[in-house]
Specification:
By secondary structure, the protein is α/β, with parallel strands linked by helices. It has helices spanning about 1-25, 35, 60-65, 135-145, 160-175, 190-200, 225-230, 245-260, 275-280, 285-295; strands at about 40-45, 50-55, 65-70, 70-75, 85-95, 95-105, 110-115, 150-155, 180-185, 210-215, 235-240, 265-270. Helix content is about 35%, strand content about 25%. A ten-stranded mixed β-sheet has the order 1-2-12-11-10-9-7-8-6-5, with helices on both faces. It has a two-stranded antiparallel sheet with strand order 3-4. Helix 4 links the parallel strand 7 (about 110-115) and strand 8 (about 150-155).
């Protein structure tokens, strides 16, 4: 009997390991134009690879990459066939109507990524195939090609009402895809919504990762539900950002590490980059695969 029970235990362990391996495989995004979107040379690295300085050059990374600088990337960086699974939608919520663009699976998605624009932006910014070096086209294709969902919403403001609208949007699609990991990327002032979501009693326990792109900091994160869950945080910042100084964002990054040992956070500094550089230059697949490996 002991032998049979031991064998059964080993069998169950093997099955659990296989299930775990399958789950891990399912949560790793497949390559998509990796050679075109990989980071340029690394100038330096510290904190066991958590902090990296990347060689950014405007002549190479804008002028050579774009057919029309900052307006239209060269065709090889995009695949617009993804528009077949792109829809402009309206969700009615208690916080107000939320217009948003959805790309990919609106039900049964394995991963959900939201992009929250900054001041003066709209839902259209996050699905523009040709600006920001084609990087929004890449995230759309990554989600569509990996059974995921990408959302780019409008919202009223960067305060409590805007946060409530985004929270309602997240709640709606989380219910339709209960097994999905949810990651929120915030550009510029959109970061204020990232931090509000992290501090929410519902969203702070639902969101699985935050990406701050040329954005701001918020000390309240250090006592938020998301922080207590050790939700991974990615920072991308240009060294010459005139809106949010890189030194202050770097200090906040280090305060996270100081507060909680081995906290899952990364900082990518684009040397000579400015305010919009991180949106153009983030390697979505690299960042999200790291987050998927750390997500609670």
């Amino acid at each position: 009997m002991a032998i049979r029970l031991q064998f059964l235990g080993l069998s169950l362990a093997a099955m659990a390991f296989a299930a775990s391996a399958t789950h891990a495989d399912a949560l790793e995004l497949k390559p998509y134009k990796d050679d075109l979107f990989a980071y340029p040379a690394t100038l330096s690295s510290s904190d066991k690879g958590a902090y990296t300085v990347i060689d950014y050059r405007e002549m190479r990374d804008i002028n050579d990459r774009d057919e029309v600088p900052e307006r239209r990337v060269h065709a090889r960086y995009t695949d617009t066939s993804v528009r077949k699974v792109q829809r402009d939608l309206l969700l009615k919520t208690d916080a107000g109507d939320v217009r948003h663009v959805a790309v990919g699976k609106t039900e049964g998605a394995g991963i959900i990524v939201l992009y929250l624009h900054g001041q003066g932006g709209s839902r259209k910014q996050g699905v523009d195939d040709f600006t920001f070096g084609g990087n929004f086209n890449r995230i759309k294709n990554l989600m569509a090609g990996n059974g995921g969902l990408y959302l780019s919403p409008d919202f009223t403001d960067f305060g409590d009402k805007g946060a409530a609208q985004v929270a309602a949007l997240i709640g709606h699609y989380a219910e339709a895809s209960p097994g999905a990991k949810i990651f929120v990327a915030c550009g510029s002032m959109g970061g204020s919504l990232c931090w509000k979501l992290a501090g929410g009693n519902d969203t702070g326990k639902r969101v699985n990762g935050l990406l701050l792109l040329g954005s701001l900091w918020d000390e309240s994160f250090l006592s938020s539900p998301a922080f207590k869950r050790r939700v991974p945080v990615f920072f991308g910042q240009g060294s010459k950002d005139p809106v949010f100084p890189v030194e202050k964002q770097e200090a906040f990054f280090r305060s996270i590490i100081a507060k909680s040992k081995a906290y899952p956070t990364r900082f990518v500094r684009f040397e000579t980059g400015t305010h919009g550089t991180p949106i153009r230059m983030i390697d979505w697949r690299d960042a999200l695969n790291w987050m998927l490996s750390k997500a609670p």
